[in-house]
Amino acid sequence: MAGLGRIGRRNTTLLSSSFLLPPALLIFRRGITSKLFVGGLSFYTTEKGLLEHFSQYGQVVEAKIIMDRVSDRSKGFGFVSFDSEEAAQKARTEMDGKELDGRTIFVDYAKPKVGFNEGMPIARGPPEPTAIK
Question: pTM higher than 0.90, yes or no?
Answer without folding.
Answer: no
